[in-house]
Specification:
228 residues, 2 domains, 10-stranded mixed beta sheet
Length: 228
């Protein structure tokens, strides 16, 4: 039987990372808790086989459009099951990334097989089903978590490939060429006038430095447009 468990996600650049499970002893909506080490055997198998896991939207395994990325890293640490994934360069993948970045989609879930489990009594006397050995199939970006004890790391925006970005980059290159040309001219002038001295303020040089500063400021603003 495949069950699903949901956790919160946080976002950062064409990639997503977070904790798909934690070792806290608070039962989720299924009454389950996860034992530390529950994923270790299957993670080792995945790595040995050189496989990756799909990153889906809402566990829709029967819809290819819902395959929005790839989970390329899984590991257990002292906090839980940490994962890293990338978004696909598809309309669905990039839309999911945008929704994760602004928080409208801010949870994730994973589907798994239970290979070993057993009932335990928690410190407060409640009973819970402890999941001790699991086989994970996928991680999904979803709307609602089953477990309120969620944990997140980051979602990254990713490099875009838009026509407007291309135009901005061309402007930045043009500005850089202007600065390089100015530097070359300054070196030549300094060489020719190295013996010339004046007590007059170098207002021309001040104006040139101001112009260069304005060019750099403009270039920085253009870069912000590309990566915002």
């Amino acid at each position: 039987m495949i069950k699903t468990k949901t956790f919160e996600v946080k976002a950062d650049h064409g990639t997503i990372s977070g904790y798909a499970s934690t070792w806290t002893r608070e039962p989720d909506s299924y009454g389950d808790i996860v034992a530390k080490g529950a994923f270790s055997e299957h993670i080792a198998q995945i790595k040995e086989e050189g496989r990756v896991l799909p990153f889906l939207f809402n566990h829709k395994v029967d819809d290819l459009r819902a395959y929005i990325g790839t989970v390329f890293e899984l590991k257990e640490d002292d906090h839980g099951l940490y994962f890293e994934g990338t978004f696909d360069d598809t309309p669905e993948g990039q839309r999911a990334r945008e929704l994760a970045l602004d928080g409208r989609l801010c949870k994730f879930s994973f589907a798994y097989d239970v290979l070993e489990a057993g009932e335990v009594t928690l410190e407060d006397g409640r009973k819970a089903n402890e999941l001790r050995k699991l086989k994970i199939h996928e991680v999904s970006l979803v709307m609602y978590p089953a477990n309120p004890d969620t944990s997140v790391v980051s979602v990254k925006a990713g490099r875009r490939n838009r026509k407007s970005d291309e135009d901005i980059i061309k402007q930045i290159i043009s500005l850089a060429n202007q600065l390089l040309t100015d530097e070359s001219d300054d070196i030549e002038e300094d060489s020719q006038e190295s013996d010339a001295k004046s007590e007059e303020p170098d207002t021309v040089n001040d104006e040139e430095q101001k112009r260069k500063a304005e060019l750099l400021e403009h270039a920085n603003k253009l870069l912000e447009e590309v990566y915002k």
